[in-house]
Amino acid sequence: MEAEHIEVAGFLSQFQPFNGLPEDTINNIAQQVEIAYYRADSDIFKFGDEIHDLCMIRSGAVEIYRRNGDLHNRLSAGGLFGQMGLLMNNRIRLPAKALEDTLIYFIPESVFIALCDEFEAFAYFVEMDDHSNLQHAVAGKDSNNLMVSKVTRLISREPVTIACTATIRQAAEKMTEEGVSSLLIVSAAELSQGPQHAAGRMMVGMITDWDLRARVVATGFSIDATVEEVMSTELITIDSDAYAFEATLIMLRNHLHHLPILDRGRPVGVIAISDIVRYESQSSLYMVGSVFRQNSLEELQLLSEEISSCFVRLVNEDANSHMIGSAMSVIGRSFKQRLLELAEAHLGAPPIPYCFLALGSMARDEQLIITDQDNALILDNQYDPQLHGEYFEALANFVCDGLAVCGFSYCTGGIMATNPLWRKTRQEWEACFADWIDNPVPEALLNCSIFFDLEGVWGKVLWAEQLNTFIAQKSSREPRFLASLARNALSRTPPLGFFKNFVMEQDGQHRNSINMKRRGTAPLADLIRVHALAVGSKARNSFERLDDIDKAGILQEGRISDLKDSLEFMSMVRIKHQAHDIEAGRTADNNIEPEHLSEFERRNLKDAFQVLSNSQRFLRFRYPL
């Protein structure tokens, strides 16, 4: 084999999916590779072009675009693209452009097809399309163990830091010396305190290899400038107590390649996509990436048919209720986000900034397979109905109609952005919440309690966080509001009789059954929300709210663990019932028949309902009218 082919084979063997192939196979590929050079900013493929080769970046960087011109992904040396075109009628779906001077290896289609046919791992890898998403892990890994692992398990080393006063040249040299693709930027004062470990320093920003390419090299920016001039400052982070699966969801949802891990506000590590590759992606996580590759409502509708199978797979893999709720919520948010992208592409750029809100179970990361849509809009304070009303009405209709087509049914109570009542400016939302809290009319709160679980999913999401802060601070100081909210939380009681026997529906379609949402998980979530607002918690998820309630010490010892156990058990009874319905070809619902439960399940379900009953009595005592 010629020296040129040996060099190609050596390069191929460094990267997935080639690094798992036999040596003679790699040598055979290397002898059939063709090489092409592309200048910076030149098109490699346009939408609809024919393609007959798998493309691998030898050097340089490539940007992949969606059909509407939005950036889809950035790839560097070792990155693959074009595989979806080969798999779909030899036509380019995602245009590619050279970000900088780039060399491309072209692997013939015949070789690509032979590899897919012969090597399952190779086929699985390329069929995942977007390599910013998760890839399958090394064979033999137990995904269930990783699903319950803390995110710190993914940290391979202490974070590498540099002072904000360092030059870009020094940052690049340090990244090369340390063999890392990112640096955390800390203040000069932090470094001047002595040779303490990097972990524990307060960060002020981050710089990555992509920043060096896109913000420095591509723009001709001076490498003698300080890193603080090009670093990213509005960072998305995750707490060290979070699970590995949560980190994965965050990275997929926000298209991140690096995610800092914080312990009490200070960095203890940074995980990259290469760290995530160590464990197998669940199909639900892959779906999150797939959502953003769909270019029409029809494609999204087709993809939405797979949501139920993702749900069932999570259940069968023994994921807990928090994991399942988070995964399903992120999938739901992703559909909203993609629909909003499509809406803006169809309607044009918004005339003023806005934030699209998710409400209720999706905001709490507790969404399951049966759900309707609850959403709203925060509009910039410059909003003028005469100038901007038509645009945002059309935007809301596009998204809500699209969600309905994708299986997220319309809210029967009209709590959707299509309702003009729930399209308000920032000032109007604060005034609205202030009125609910200052003048707590029980009937009004009964209908609006869902708004106290809100999260921004698109646009100026910081506005949602600011609104959450406003709600938490104001509600904790208003006992009349908390008492009214508590009274509403007592309106749905657990289905236990005087002798602790189950009280079931007496008539209708679901007679002799128990609605696990209406009589179990929903009143428990309502109860937890009251305590959380009382202690000023900004958390939305019920388990995370319980952690904040525990820290405040307002409940007797042991009550928090009882509430967590009860919520988990009731949720899993409901979740498994829905999964069984789906597997049996029935329409999933929230109604369980106790006669179909084991003796163990019936006994523990009664205990869980009793914890709810006792907690409701305490709620009445703590927040008297």
Automatic annotation (TrEMBL):
Coiled coil: none annotated. Pfam families: CBS (PF00571), cNMP_binding (PF00027), DUF294 (PF03445), DUF294_C (PF10335). This is CBS domain-containing protein. InterPro entries: CBS_dom, CBS_dom_sf, cNMP-bd_dom, cNMP-bd_dom_sf, Diverse_CBS-Domain, DUF294_put_nucleoTrafse_sb-bd, GlnD_Uridyltrans_N, RmlC-like_jellyroll. Keywords: CBS domain. One of its GO terms (molecular function) is [protein-PII] uridylyltransferase activity. Residues 17-93 form the Cyclic nucleotide-binding domain. Residues 155-223, 231-287 form the CBS domain. The keyword Chaperone does not apply.
